[in-house]
Design a protein that fits this description.
alpha+beta; Aminopeptidase; 2 domains; seven-stranded mixed sheet; 11 helices
């Protein structure tokens, strides 16, 4: 049976699914719905009414009233491979209701299991990704000593310095979010990348903390030096955004606060810590060029590579086309950009 699950039962399904991800929780749909997207959900139920498959789909309007793009970030869940065909038919009907010209699917990371057969499902590789396909994944299931031992010497030294400098690390409440948004503005200007408006982070905090996330800040003598927004679903935590001040950078608070975020993830029972986004090139190219480049995600790779993780590429982005003419216009716009 095809149905529309309510937020509570959908979130319960996501959290118990082996591939459950923060971007499929109803709160993520609520967040993005305030910033240019709309969100809807569809599921398959068994005879007893239990959800056995489903997806949260985001929709964004295309220019010139050409309908919408449907987008499934790090989701689309089944409990048996035989359910895929029925799920995609249900998603197609949902997409039709929202006037979608095509569906973009980013299934996410596949660490321990095989990727699905996209071509058999009717998908073609997309010319555009939304989430960064490449990341550094840290195994945090071992002891702290073992985690530290896998890091490079410089990262270990900076973590220990950050923990010895008299810095206070704490989980921030709603009133503290303004400190983080100020840091994000400073970091964006320093590293030349765009950041969300302050209300975005305030809403993110309200929707996710404390059930699914924490905002961890580092302070010293009244100055906020660094902050990390860390999320968790299932066995994986995601470091989605972080920022640091221009003052007292020699105190290495950005390393100390990241270490505190890892401790938070370990306390939640997470096995992996996802550093969330590095340049989308092979690892040998990353290692050959990271000291020479600072554009885009290259500027953060030098920081993330030192934490002893494994470079992992997601399944990337895949499209299924509902309106070939509009889809061709979309591909042309991407190529011109």
């Amino acid at each position: 049976m095809i149905d529309t699950p309510n937020a509570n039962e959908w979130d319960a399904f996501v959290m118990q699914h082996p591939r459950g991800h923060i971007l499929q929780l109803s709160a993520w749909g609520d967040l993005k719905s305030q910033y240019g997207w709309s969100a809807d959900r569809v599921c398959l139920r068994d005879a007893s009414g239990q959800i056995i498959a489903g997806a949260q789909v985001l929709f964004r309007r295309l220019p010139m009233r050409l309908g919408t793009m449907a987008y499934i970030p790090f989701g689309g869940y089944v409990t048996d491979a035989s359910q895929w065909a029925a799920l995609w038919q249900a998603v197609r009907e949902l997409s039709k209701k929202h006037s979608a010209a095509f569906l973009k699917w980013e299934p996410g990371l596949y660490i321990d299991d095989a990727m699905p057969d996209f071509a058999t499902m009717g998908f073609k590789e997309s010319p555009q990704t939304v989430q960064p396909p490449n990341t550094v994944m840290i195994d945090i299931s071992d002891s702290n000593d073992d985690i530290l031992a896998r890091m490079n010497q410089g990262t270990r030294r900076k973590i220990r310095k950050g923990l010895k400098e008299g810095i206070t690390y704490y989980e921030a409440g709603a009133d503290d979010v303004v400190k983080f948004t100020s840091l994000m503005q400073v970091t964006g200007e320093r590293n030349d990348f765009g950041v969300h408006e302050p209300d975005y982070y305030a809403l993110q905090h309200r929707l996710f903390v404390p059930e699914h996330a924490a905002l961890i800040l580092a302070e010293h003598e009244g100055d906020t030096l660094a902050g990390v927004f860390v999320f968790a679903a299932g066995d994986t935590a995601q470091y989605i955004s972080g920022a640091s001040s221009n003052i007292n950078r020699n105190m290495m608070a950005s390393y100390g606060v990241q270490w505190q975020a890892i401790q938070w993830a370990k306390s939640r029972g997470c096995r992996y810590y996802d550093m969330w986004g590095i340049p989308d090139v092979p690892e040998d190219q990353l290692e050959a060029q990271f000291q020479e480049r600072s554009d885009g995600l290259w500027g953060v790779y030098g920081f993330k590579r030192g934490w002893g993780g494994q470079v992992v590429r997601s399944a990337g982005a895949w499209d299924i086309v509902y309106n070939p003419l509009i889809y061709q216009a979309y591909k042309l716009a991407i190529s011109l950009r």
